[in-house]
Amino acid sequence: GNGAYQLNLLIDMILASTLPDGSISYLYYADRVNQLPLGVLGIAISTAMLPILSNQMKRNESIKAKETISKAIKFGLIFSIPSFVGLCILSDEIVTFLFFRGAFEYSDVKLTGLALMALSFGLPAFIMIKILVVPFFANEDTKTPVRISVISMFLNLALNLLLIKKFLHVGLAIATSISAWFNVLMLIYFLLTKIKIQFDKTILNVFIKVVFSSISMGLLIKYLM
User: Fold this and answer.
1) 37-55 pLDDT, tens digit each
2) Cα distance between residue 139 and residue 54, in whole Å
């Protein structure tokens, strides 16, 4: 239920083996960079959130549970959207700093950078999935996230086959990001309809502020560069 991203990436790697030499490496290196904010932020928030939310739901403290979920989502937005903008704008610079040496040439930097840009579009979704599955687990519902993950995997595979011919390894990364956003929308839908979770209205205010701030940051970075 929590591993759709890793399974989708495995499918991507298998399909990348049919592409020109280096395609698997481009996806792998891009994923390594993308995993940093996902591991530090998304997994950390969900791990800390699960025992707190489980206790609140067992005690039927619905108001506190709502606050816990809303706070976690806000933290996810505050960290993930600026990370996405930063990775998207500075993809080539980050890849150059980390990998541009030896047999890793400038053409490899550009191709890895494109894959990183495509994966970074899904970064907020990857982090949100880690947060949004927690209320299901706390409510002792492990089946729904698994079913959503399976559907997302099939969507990812279909998009892979559709995009791989034109966009090669970048198409695989795009498919993974799109399927992650689909996963998020499905989790939100079932949280509202099945678990009956009510989200705090201030989440929208935080989202608007973070998007505005991140765009401002992105424009300033582009100007300085």
Assistant:
1) 888 888 888 889 889 988 9
2) 7
97 CB-near residues (< 8 Å, 6+ apart): none
Contact present, 100 and 106 (Cβ < 8 Å) = yes
Distance CA 143, CA 147 (A): 6
What is the rounded CA–CA span in Å between residue 38 and residue 47?
12
Q: Which residues, in sequence order, are CB contacts of 125 under 8 Å at separation 6+?
A: 177, 180, 181, 183, 184
Against a cut of 0.85, is the pTM above it? yes
Task: Please tell me the distance from the alpha carbon of residue 68 to that of residue 92, in angstroms, as a whole number.
Answer: 37
- Torsions phi, psi of 75, nearest 5? -60, -40
Token output for 106: 């400038």
